[in-house]
Write a sequence for this structure.
C-alpha cells in the first residue's frame, strides 16, 4: 500500500523537492546576481604583476605591460642605435595599479535599475509558481480522497449486487422467479464489478499524480488526512 501523507506534509515536501519551484528560485538567484554586476563595476580594481625580461637589444618600451593588467608609464629602454651585442641582459618590472569608475553619465545606474526590475519580476514569478504548486498539490490530494470515495461506493455496489444475485438465485431454484431474474442479477453484478475495477484504477492513478505533484521518487502516495485549516469565506 502507498505511504500515507497529510496535506501539510505534502505541501512542505513539494516546496523543497519540486523541480519546477527549484528552477523558479534559481532564476531569482540569477536575476539578483545579475543586478549586482553594474554596482560591482563601480568598485575599485587592484591589480599587481611582475615581469622578468631577458634580451639583447630588445629592452624597449613595448616589452612591458601586456599581461600585467595595469597601466605603465613610459620607461627607459635600450636605444634603437645601441651597439649590437649577443650577450643578454635581464630586466625586471614589478608594479601595482588601482582602477575605479568615477563617472559614466548614468550608464551603470540605469543598468542596475533595469536589472533590479528583472529581479523583481523573477521574484513575482517564483511566488506565482509557489501558489500554482500549492494548488496543484491540494487538487491532487483531494483527488485521491474523491477517488477513494468512488472506490468505496463501487465496492459497496458490488456487495449489494452479490446479495441481489444470491437472492435471485435462491428464488429461481425455488421456482418463485423465472430464470431471467438470475440472468439480470448476474449481468448487474458483472457491471458493478467492472465499475469497481475502473474505480481501483482511478484511485491508483490519483495516488501516482499526488506523488508526482510533490516531486517524490515514490511511485504513489496516499492521503493521510486534511490537516490545514481554512477560513470561512465572508458572506
Amino acid at each position: 500500500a502507498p505511504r500515507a501523507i497529510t496535506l501539510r506534509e505534502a505541501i512542505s515536501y513539494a516546496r523543497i523537492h519540486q523541480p519546477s519551484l527549484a528552477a523558479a528560485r534559481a532564476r531569482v538567484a540569477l536575476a539578483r546576481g545579475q543586478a549586482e554586476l553594474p554596482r560591482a563595476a563601480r568598485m575599485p580594481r587592484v591589480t599587481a604583476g611582475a615581469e622578468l625580461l631577458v634580451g639583447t637589444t630588445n629592452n624597449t618600451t613595448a616589452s612591458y605591460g601586456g599581461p600585467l593588467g595595469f597601466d605603465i608609464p613610459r620607461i627607459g629602454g635600450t636605444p634603437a642605435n645601441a651597439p649590437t651585442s649577443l650577450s643578454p641582459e635581464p630586466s625586471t618590472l614589478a608594479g601595482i595599479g588601482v582602477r575605479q569608475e568615477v563617472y559614466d553619465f548614468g550608464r551603470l545606474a540605469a543598468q542596475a535599475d533595469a536589472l533590479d526590475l528583472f529581479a523583481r519580476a523573477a521574484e513575482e514569478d517564483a511566488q506565482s509558481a509557489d501558489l500554482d504548486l500549492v494548488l496543484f498539490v491540494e487538487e491532487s490530494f483531494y483527488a485521491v480522497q474523491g477517488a477513494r470515495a468512488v472506490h468505496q461506493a463501487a465496492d459497496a455496489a458490488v456487495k449489494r449486487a452479490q446479495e441481489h444475485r444470491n437472492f435471485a438465485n435462491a428464488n429461481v431454484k425455488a421456482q418463485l422467479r423465472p430464470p431471467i431474474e438470475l440472468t439480470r442479477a448476474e449481468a448487474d453484478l458483472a457491471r458493478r464489478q467492472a465499475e469497481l475495477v475502473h474505480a481501483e484504477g482511478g484511485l491508483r492513478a490519483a495516488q501516482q499524480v499526488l506523488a508526482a505533484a510533490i516531486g517524490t521518487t515514490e511511485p504513489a502516495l496516499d492521503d493521510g488526512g486534511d490537516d490545514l485549516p481554512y477560513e470561512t469565506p465572508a458572506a
Summary: The helical segments are 7-17, 19-35, 37-40, 107-173, 179-214. Strands lie at 3-5, 45-55, 89-99, 221-223. The chain has five helices and four strands. The longest strand covers residues 45-55.
